[in-house]
Amino acid sequence: MVQMVAWITSLVFMLLIAAVFLVVAIKSKEKREYEPIVKKWYKARTFYGAILVILIIGVSLYTLRLIPFNQPVYSEGEEPTIVDVEAFQFGWNITETEFKVGEPVEFHVTSQDVNHGFGIYDEDMEIIAQTQAMPDYTNKVYITFDEPGTYEILCLEYCGLAHHQMVAELVVK
Amino acid sequence: MSEMMVRLKSRNNLIVTQMVVTGLTVIVGMIFGIIMLLVQGGMIEAMPATFYQFLTIHGTFMIGAAALAATAIMWYFLSHYVELSKKILKINLVLFIIAAVMVTVGTFSFEYAGAWTFLYPLPALSASAWGTIGALFYLIGMLVMGVGFLLLFIDSGRAIIKKYGSLGKGLGWDVIIGKKAEKDAPPPAVVASTMVTIVNTTALLSGSTVLIMNIINVINPAFTFNPLLAKNLTYAFGHIFANATIYMGVIVVYELLARYTKRPWNSSRVFLVFWTMSTFFTLLVYPHHLLMDSVMPRWMLIMGQVLSYANGLPVLVVTAYGALMIVYKSGIKWDMASGLAYLSMLGWTIGVIPAIVDSAIVVNHVMHNTKWVPGHFHMYMGLGVIAMTFSFMYFLAKNDNGLKETMVDKTAFFMYMFGLIGVSGSFLTSGAISTPRRFATHLPEWMGPAQFGAVAGILVVIAITIFVIHFIRYISVRNKGNIGSDYYDKKLA
Amino acid sequence: MKQTKLGILLYVILIIPPITTYMESIMLVHMLIQFPLLILAGWLIGEWVLERWPYHFLKWDANGIAGIILVIFITTYWMFPRAMDESLTIWHIELFKFISLPLVGILLRNSWRKLTIIGRSFVFLNYLSMFGLMGWFYIDSPVQICNNYLEIEQQMLGWGFVVITGIMIVYVLQKCFISGTKSNVNQI
Amino acid sequence: MIKNWRNVVAIILAIVLGSLLIYFGTDGFHAFTEESARTYQLHQEKPLFPRVMLEDNKERVYPFSEFEDKYVLITFFYTACTDVCPVLEMNFAEVYDQIPEKYIGEDIVFLSISFDTKHDKPAVLENYRKSFGSDGETWRMARIPNQTELDNLLKKFGVIVIPEGNGHFQHNSAFYLVNRKGYLEKVMDYEKVDEAAQTVVSVLEKEAGE
């Protein structure tokens, strides 16, 4: 979901920029005085810069509303399931691997040896959440599975020669 | 031959040597890159150990080559304005070659495969995949390289301070506050060099600190360090050092486009303000590599996101915009040098977009360490820094010798452009479908983009080889004693 | 020769047993006051040494590099927690301290003026990052690193290093960003 | 180049001398702290457990030679300790649990020695042992009433104890394995329980195999 939005947004802006570069390259064949160009386009730049600044502030405010490492507010009487995850070369120790749909889960992720990445993939092999697993520290991921199925954990930080084989499964019923 | 000419020639010789080393390193690095894509695409087979060794060498060589080429560009143009030490340039090149050999020996002879980011404590804890000696060869090699670059930037800082009074003045702060007129502002080449001097000195200091931490830990694993500190230092080093290459490379764009269009590209006040912003942002945004470490202080992570956004402004509003403006209706004569310079600005600008997108914490949550990340920097570095490098090569060849460019070169230009767009695009697509980065094997559904990327990569290597051949032709002509007509240098003399 | 006399006086004061014992009883004073004072004593005495054997230094250490390398190695050695511990318990390590650190001062005096600005800046920046690391290391260390000192002292020492690093950073910044007249710019 | 050969020689000499200093100063890069140097040295020297009289939690008094022909795994602690010692003894208990039962008491005895002779009387020790599940037989807690004997032992085994003056001590901690002949065999990191247990078991197994 987020991936698609990101991909399309990037593509649109990249194509836009490429188009501008192309137009300017085509227009470069003409030859005009520089002074008037500077004057005109400096003015345009002020406008364009202002729009960018507003865009940046807007997008920042929008995307920072819900940052994933803020602990969600649980409703009265609802206790999250706390799952301890320990990564090691090359595997996972996960205290609990079966969950129910709608059950709030907190993964407390750490590592025995080197840095690893704890990435949760859904049934369609799309990442839905991740955090770093690092020695001496515990990172947290908050998640509530919406759909039943088998989820996979892959390592998302290069950790040695069997990095790509560090797989674990979670089952959501 | 006048004394001046001799001096210039020996100076150019060093630069030319440095560019040859870069060109060859880039080709070798790219070949390893293509092999990795072929393996991921399931088209050839390799042991994971081999794959990760290639990964390590590819990253190290590419970053090293980009830095070496970029410093050559910076040095060449900066030396028109300030007095730089040729001895230091030579020492840096020698140390770089020693480092490259050590890194190669460590990787291939002793099977070190801890990636170029040497994230503590991986060099020491390899699950017995590699030993102490391999790790030490690699780490000390990197340290040697760091020493060379540090000396180089100390020298550029010294020279700028000597000429302009202080690094602040090198960035034109006295012009910004209105103490000095805009027309007396330091030229763009000096401003960029000052910025890079500041940020890279910081980067190299953090880099050497974390390297020494790793070295001690490898020698005696009982001696441990704080892994979060190590991570911060590593990314402060890696992020700044990689970014600085483009800020050095862009000097060639400033110098070339101004010359080709016969339009001035001066440091205006806005230009100076934005370069100062770039200086601070480049130093401060590295936490966007740590967005997935929730143990980091929250304000640092939010700063990482917000400043990453803001860091897009200088390039989008000043540098790229300036390049477009200077080319627009200028009647410019396009050749390889000017074409590549223009292309590099495109690469830089569009490469910034996926980076900005990924620096949002919510997006990073699902895209961090997927192939989206290499997608962004292959555009930014591959189509940006590398294009600047070869733009500079063609400039030297033409300016020094008047060497003619052929249709082959032109074809190579387009192969290179579409090839790299293909490579980066395939990476970005992989990232969008959640393909993890740095995986020796791919699931079947991830293989398509990798195969496409490999084919596009082959196009790029062919193009780069043609570029390098052109450059080597230039050297052979040059060595016949036909000293060229560097009008710029002559004017200086 | 005024400096030499001062240096010898300083050295004599430093080796008076009660003073030595007192200084060594506090970790911070041991590393951040006694060590530098010993180096300072060497530096002052260096005036006479350099005058007495000028040609030897010229011949063997014309560019100052050999001297500075020794300085770096010796000071690095003395930054190991172990060296500090052992100087308290093993007499020949203590003796080595009172010889090697003044030697550092002498070598430094000779090398520093011969080094180029680039060399000096390089050495300076390396010490800057090294001190920063030492600061973090002593503060953050979860265990007692020195057997002869308490953990709290260890942390005080760490903060001492942090303060020194801070001062060094301020020094670099003012040198690089606040320009004086042209003449003193030349000597970063 | 040739004209400053002396410089080049001096530089090489400086590097060699400096490296030697660092090398020997750290026992060949093994020990940057005195603690690690101490462990390293103990492994090299394997000192003999000196003659001492112990007084244990059951008020029994006997020399250390009582344990002759058995391995003894030892910790040094004091009961008033609030930071390291509880962890140390907890971990000690975990090691105890990981040793196969057939060895316990027969081939190996666990012994926690208090260096707070004044305060840790047998009754105090008896009380303390219960909180860690020590049975008082195969894992005993004891003090050494004679201060000179205690100091001698601490010195031999490189245990450093600095009284803070308020009833507390700063001290270093480890597991010490003494062999059947009374020589120190191994010093192990008390934080790495599994590793220590494995080491002890492998020592015991190796003997059984012979």
UniProtKB/TrEMBL annotation, chain A:
Q: Which UniProt keywords apply?
A: Copper, Membrane, Metal-binding, Transmembrane, Transmembrane helix
Gene3D superfamilies per record = Cupredoxins - blue copper proteins
Residue ranges annotated for the Cytochrome oxidase subunit II copper A binding domain, each copy included: 78-173
Q: Which InterPro entries match?
A: CcO_II-like_C, Copper_CuA, Cupredoxin, NosZ/Cyto_c_oxidase_sub2
Looking at the Swiss-Prot or TrEMBL record, what is one Pfam family this protein matches? Answer: COX2
One Gene Ontology cellular component: membrane
Annotated compartments: Cell envelope
Q: Which reaction does it catalyse?
A: 4 Fe(II)-[cytochrome c] + O2 + 8 H(+)(in) = 4 Fe(III)-[cytochrome c] + 2 H2O + 4 H(+)(out)
Q: Which residues cross the membrane?
A: 6-26, 47-67
A molecular function (GO) held by this record is: copper ion binding
Purpose: Subunits I and II form the functional core of the enzyme complex. Electrons originating in cytochrome c are transferred via heme a and Cu(A) to the binuclear center formed by heme a3 and Cu(B).
According to UniProt, the name of this protein is Cytochrome aa3 subunit 2
From TrEMBL, chain B:
Q: Which PROSITE patterns match?
A: COX1 (PS50855)
Gene3D superfamilies in the cross-refs: Cytochrome c oxidase-like, subunit I domain
Tell me the domain of life: Bacteria
| Key words of the record | Electron transport, Membrane, Respiratory chain, Transmembrane, Transmembrane helix, Transport
One cellular component GO annotation, for this chain's record?
A: membrane
Instruction: Domain (Cytochrome oxidase subunit I profile): give its ranges.
Output: 4-493
Keyword Lyase carried by entry:
no
UniProt xrefs under Pfam families: COX1 (PF00115)
Any one GO BP annotation for this protein: aerobic respiration
Q: Which InterPro entries match?
A: Cyt_c_oxase-like_su1_dom, Cyt_c_oxase-like_su1_sf, Cyt_C_Oxase_1
| Segments passing through the bilayer | 12-39, 51-77, 89-110, 130-154, 189-216, 236-257, 269-286, 306-328, 340-357, 377-397, 413-433, 453-472
Task: Provide a Gene Ontology MF annotation, just one.
Answer: cytochrome-c oxidase activity
Keyword Membrane: yes or no?
A: yes
Please state what the protein is called: Cytochrome C oxidase subunit I
TrEMBL record, chain C:
* Residue stretches spanning the membrane: 31-50, 62-80, 92-110, 122-139, 159-178
Which keywords has UniProt assigned to this entry?
Membrane, Transmembrane, Transmembrane helix
Name of this chain's protein: DUF1404 domain-containing protein
**Species for this entry:** Cerasibacillus terrae
Provide the organism lineage as a comma list: Bacteria, Bacillati, Bacillota, Bacilli, Bacillales
From TrEMBL, chain D:
Keyword set includes Metal-binding: yes
Summarize where Cu cation binds, as residue positions: C81, C85, H171
Question: By its UniProt entry, which Pfam families does this protein fall under?
Answer: SCO1-SenC
Under CDD domains, the record lists: SCO
Q: Which GO terms describe its molecular function?
A: metal ion binding
Q: Where, by residue number, does the polypeptide cross the bilayer?
A: 7-26
Highest taxon above the source species: Bacteria
Does the keyword field hold Repeat?
no
Q: Which UniProt keywords apply?
A: Copper, Disulfide bond, Membrane, Metal-binding, Transmembrane, Transmembrane helix
What cystine pairs are annotated?
Answer: C81-C85
Family according to the record: Belongs to the SCO1/2 family.
Could you identify this protein by its name?
A: SCO family protein
User: What is this organism's lineage?
Assistant: Bacteria, Bacillati, Bacillota, Bacilli, Bacillales
